[in-house]
Write a structure and sequence with these properties.
8 strands; two-stranded antiparallel sheet; alpha+beta; 2 helices
Length: 157
């Protein structure tokens, strides 16, 4: 077995270190490029929705844009929301809706619906949507709920 000379081992170690540095540099460059890419954010004047999801937000709500889940009223909530529109006039999403009015049938299997937020107004210096409508995918059927009858007020505080 031939022994490798010290200078050759050093050259091999240096080559390996340079290869690692080159790989790390490539990753760092890619990460930096992603960080520098423009982020799609809402304009400053685009309304928020006051969301009351979670105990910490139940009383005062939290100003959010395009939330995944949303409390619409004390009787109705929406989840798995996919926002198709969010602008100065309205916000439209499809997702799952549940409520006190359908617990026996929709607690384990939420109803598919389109949720529309509208009528922005300024509350405590923040522009927020003040109304909502819910349109169930299969129609209201046997569900008799105020939240399913046209435009309803949305909590704004």
């Amino acid at each position: 077995m031939k022994r490798t000379s010290t200078p050759r081992r050093h050259r091999t170690a240096i080559a390996a270190a340079l290869a690692c540095a080159a790989a790390l540099g490539t990753v760092a460059t890619a990460t930096g490029a992603q960080a520098a890419a423009p982020q799609h954010t809402a304009k400053a004047d685009t309304p928020y929705v006051m969301n009351h999801v979670g105990e910490e937000n139940a009383d005062k709500g939290k100003a959010e844009r395009k939330p995944e889940s949303l409390v619409l009223s004390e009787f109705t909530s929406a989840g798995d929301l996919h926002w198709k529109q969010w602008d100065n006039k309205k916000a439209v999403a499809t997702g799952d809706v549940t409520g006190m009015w359908c617990l026996e049938t929709c607690q384990d299997k939420p109803l598919k619906a389109t949720v529309t937020l509208s009528d922005p107004k300024t509350v405590h210096g923040k522009k927020v949507y003040s109304s909502f409508t819910v349109k169930l995918a299969g129609g209201n059927g046997s569900y008799d709920s105020e939240d399913l009858k046209g435009k309803q007020p949305l909590a704004t505080i």
